[in-house]
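> forwarded from #structure-qc
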Protein backbone atom coordinates (compact mmCIF):
# COMPACT_ATOMS: atom_id res chain seq x y z
CA UNK A 1 0.00 0.00 0.00
CA UNK A 2 1.30 3.45 -0.84
CA UNK A 3 2.22 5.44 2.25
CA UNK A 4 1.68 8.81 0.58
CA UNK A 5 1.80 10.56 -2.78
CA UNK A 6 4.23 13.37 -2.00
CA UNK A 7 2.68 15.38 0.83
CA UNK A 8 1.53 13.24 3.76
CA UNK A 9 0.28 16.16 5.88
CA UNK A 10 -1.92 17.71 3.21
CA UNK A 11 -3.17 14.23 2.21
CA UNK A 12 -4.06 13.53 5.85
CA UNK A 13 -5.92 16.84 6.02
CA UNK A 14 -7.90 15.95 2.88
CA UNK A 15 -8.79 12.55 4.34
CA UNK A 16 -9.99 14.09 7.61
CA UNK A 17 -12.12 16.57 5.63
CA UNK A 18 -13.69 13.72 3.66
CA UNK A 19 -12.01 14.58 0.37
CA UNK A 20 -9.18 12.05 0.14
CA UNK A 21 -8.65 8.90 -1.87
CA UNK A 22 -6.69 5.83 -0.86
CA UNK A 23 -5.99 2.89 -3.15
CA UNK A 24 -6.00 -0.35 -1.15
CA UNK A 25 -4.41 -2.37 -3.94
CA UNK A 26 -3.26 -5.14 -1.61
CA UNK A 27 -6.85 -6.09 -0.70
CA UNK A 28 -8.21 -9.07 -2.60
CA UNK A 29 -11.67 -8.74 -4.12
CA UNK A 30 -14.24 -11.49 -4.60
CA UNK A 31 -17.85 -11.45 -5.73
CA UNK A 32 -20.90 -13.35 -4.52
CA UNK A 33 -23.83 -13.62 -6.91
CA UNK A 34 -27.13 -15.46 -6.88
CA UNK A 35 -30.60 -14.92 -5.42
CA UNK A 36 -29.76 -16.65 -2.12
CA UNK A 37 -26.61 -14.63 -1.34
CA UNK A 38 -28.08 -12.60 1.54
CA UNK A 39 -29.66 -15.48 3.46
CA UNK A 40 -26.60 -17.65 2.77
CA UNK A 41 -24.18 -15.02 4.14
CA UNK A 42 -26.53 -14.41 7.08
CA UNK A 43 -26.35 -18.10 8.01
CA UNK A 44 -22.56 -18.38 7.61
CA UNK A 45 -21.31 -15.18 9.26
CA UNK A 46 -21.60 -13.17 12.45
CA UNK A 47 -23.37 -10.29 10.67
CA UNK A 48 -27.00 -9.90 9.69
CA UNK A 49 -27.44 -9.82 5.92
CA UNK A 50 -31.24 -9.84 6.14
CA UNK A 51 -32.75 -6.88 4.29
CA UNK A 52 -29.51 -5.77 2.65
CA UNK A 53 -30.22 -3.45 -0.26
CA UNK A 54 -28.22 -1.73 -2.98
CA UNK A 55 -25.44 0.42 -1.52
CA UNK A 56 -25.45 -1.23 1.92
CA UNK A 57 -22.02 -2.09 3.31
CA UNK A 58 -21.39 -5.03 5.62
CA UNK A 59 -18.43 -6.66 7.31
CA UNK A 60 -18.55 -10.31 8.20
CA UNK A 61 -16.62 -12.72 10.37
CA UNK A 62 -16.46 -16.43 9.84
CA UNK A 63 -15.57 -18.29 13.00
CA UNK A 64 -14.02 -21.70 13.55
CA UNK A 65 -15.81 -24.26 15.79
CA UNK A 66 -14.05 -22.78 18.85
CA UNK A 67 -15.33 -19.27 18.15
CA UNK A 68 -12.03 -17.91 16.87
CA UNK A 69 -11.98 -15.67 13.81
CA UNK A 70 -11.06 -17.66 10.72
CA UNK A 71 -11.93 -15.12 7.97
CA UNK A 72 -12.83 -11.44 7.86
CA UNK A 73 -14.34 -9.66 4.88
CA UNK A 74 -15.94 -6.33 4.06
CA UNK A 75 -18.24 -5.59 1.17
CA UNK A 76 -20.98 -3.66 -0.55
CA UNK A 77 -24.22 -4.83 -2.15
CA UNK A 78 -24.45 -3.61 -5.75
CA UNK A 79 -28.00 -4.76 -6.39
CA UNK A 80 -26.82 -7.64 -8.57
CA UNK A 81 -24.04 -9.05 -6.41
CA UNK A 82 -22.14 -8.59 -3.17
CA UNK A 83 -18.63 -7.29 -3.89
CA UNK A 84 -16.29 -8.06 -1.01
CA UNK A 85 -12.64 -7.74 -0.12
CA UNK A 86 -10.37 -9.35 2.39
CA UNK A 87 -6.77 -9.22 3.56
CA UNK A 88 -3.85 -10.11 1.26
CA UNK A 89 -3.55 -13.84 0.66
CA UNK A 90 -6.95 -14.67 2.14
CA UNK A 91 -9.40 -14.53 -0.79
CA UNK A 92 -8.36 -17.91 -2.21
CA UNK A 93 -8.87 -19.83 1.04
CA UNK A 94 -12.03 -17.85 1.86
CA UNK A 95 -13.63 -18.42 -1.57
CA UNK A 96 -12.69 -22.13 -1.37
CA UNK A 97 -14.31 -22.38 2.07
CA UNK A 98 -17.43 -20.52 0.89
CA UNK A 99 -17.71 -22.84 -2.13
CA UNK A 100 -17.76 -25.83 0.23
CA UNK A 101 -20.68 -24.25 2.14
CA UNK A 102 -23.05 -23.85 -0.84
CA UNK A 103 -25.08 -27.07 -0.52
CA UNK A 104 -28.57 -26.35 -1.97
CA UNK A 105 -28.31 -22.55 -2.27
CA UNK A 106 -28.21 -20.57 -5.49
CA UNK A 107 -24.97 -18.65 -5.01
CA UNK A 108 -21.65 -18.40 -6.78
CA UNK A 109 -18.37 -17.03 -5.46
CA UNK A 110 -15.55 -15.90 -7.74
CA UNK A 111 -12.28 -14.12 -7.15
CA UNK A 112 -12.04 -10.78 -8.96
CA UNK A 113 -8.34 -9.94 -9.50
CA UNK A 114 -9.49 -7.40 -12.12
CA UNK A 115 -10.91 -5.13 -9.37
CA UNK A 116 -9.17 -3.00 -6.72
CA UNK A 117 -10.49 -1.39 -3.57
CA UNK A 118 -10.42 2.40 -3.60
CA UNK A 119 -11.49 4.25 -0.47
CA UNK A 120 -13.00 7.64 -1.28
CA UNK A 121 -13.45 9.99 1.63
CA UNK A 122 -16.81 11.60 1.23
CA UNK A 123 -19.33 13.33 3.41
CA UNK A 124 -21.93 12.53 0.77
CA UNK A 125 -23.55 9.14 0.27
CA UNK A 126 -21.84 7.07 -2.43
CA UNK A 127 -24.15 5.64 -5.11
CA UNK A 128 -23.54 2.54 -7.24
Amino acid sequence: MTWHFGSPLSEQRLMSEGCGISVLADREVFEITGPDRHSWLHNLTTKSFVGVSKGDARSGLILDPNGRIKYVFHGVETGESFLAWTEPGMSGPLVDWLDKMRFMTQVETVQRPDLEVVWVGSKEEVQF
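QC bot note: The mean pLDDT is 85. Helices lie at 8-16, 37-44, 91-100.
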